[in-house]
TrEMBL record, chain A:
This is Protocatechuate 3,4-dioxygenase subunit beta. Pfam families: Dioxygenase_C. Residues 60-88 form the Intradiol ring-cleavage dioxygenases domain. Keywords: Dioxygenase, Oxidoreductase. Belongs to the intradiol ring-cleavage dioxygenase family. One of its GO terms (molecular function) is protocatechuate 3,4-dioxygenase activity. It is an enzyme of class 1 (oxidoreductase).
From TrEMBL, chain B:
Its EC number is 1.13.11.3. GO terms for molecular function: protocatechuate 3,4-dioxygenase activity. It is an enzyme of class 1 (oxidoreductase). It comes from the Bacteria. Keywords: Oxidoreductase. It comes from Streptantibioticus rubrisoli. This is Protocatechuate 3,4-dioxygenase subunit alpha. Residues 61-80 are annotated as: Disordered.
Amino acid sequence: MPEPYRGALSRQPQRPLVVVDDPEAVELTGPVFGAADVTAIDSDLTRQHPGQPLGQRITVSGRVVDRTGRPVHGQLVEIWQANAAGRYAHRRDQHHAPLDPNFTGAGRCLTDDQGHYRFTTIRPGAYPWGEHSNSWRPAHIHFSLFGTAFTQRLVTQMYFPGDPLLPLDPIWCGVPDADRQRLVAAYDPELSVPGRALGYRWDIVLDGGPR
Amino acid sequence: MTLEPTPSQTIGPYFGHALPHPAGGRIAPTGHPDTVTVHGRVLDGCGAPVDDALLEFWQPAPDGSRTGAPGSLRRDPVDGTAVGRDGVAFTGFGRVATGADGGYVVRTLRPGGVPYLSVCVFARGLLGNLFTRAYLSQAADPLLSSLDARRRATLIAVPERTGVHRFDVRLRGDGEHEETVFLAFR
Ligand SMILES: [Fe+2]
């Protein structure tokens, strides 16, 4: 088990958070998004360029709910990820792996009435990072979520089942034991598209929110 | 039923091609005469600029409405490119990435009913997001009045000239400068 990732010390507050216990706090409401904020193709990361991206085509879907199990409907889900070779279409990523001209690796969708989201993409590659010598991030997809309250705002990462890099990853291992597995998607044959894509299910529970 | 929440994870360094959107800091409708500019820098505990932070803003409309409106990150339905706001609707939501100098700018309208903008901070090296508030005035407010003067000052968006306020976010104190007050909600 690696030393868990604790982040950059110089960027982390030293003082305790100040608790706001105010039923009128603006943060108990939140922004909304609508049909004009997304197009149908935004949720299919394999169709954003003239050609097909390289890599294993997958679907990733699940439900977004709050802690009481209520679906978060009509809300924005955004994802971003590396390409199949483990490289981001981002200037600062200088990993010596090829960019894919047919893959940007960013997508978005709105959840449906039951809180479901669904993306079609390719399985991202693992990539090296500078945490320690020969450290590799397991394949992951970054997720950004909104609830009904700004307090529910969540940015996190989804992992793939059975990845041998997981127990070696300081970032995944930085999450307490009991919570870690909830960041790992499940392979779900029901979500696979015959002859086309492997299906993964990952449900998300947003914290906080209006009482 | 109480479900365990999904843990948060760092936003990492590579969100820039995915999350920021055109004119994400231009919350005020185009050319609105009451536009207020809020700008500043995000700084770390050494006073160094944080050049890969993402700031989000959420606020009531000037009439006090807290429902927001869609359209913060409109896409072109033909080619899918991001076209940004329509310049008319007040969505109440802003999103800006910091520049190489750690700087950001938002242009908005004063929120109705409260004196503050809600601010959510994401950055590489943070395990989760941080919440704070940028107060555009020091009107009576339960949070401000609960803090001592030095701490309270970190939440004030200082007027520089008419319609322009400065609000720096200091992620960690450096001994000389007070660290920004960050919030948890019950
Ligand atoms: Fe990543």
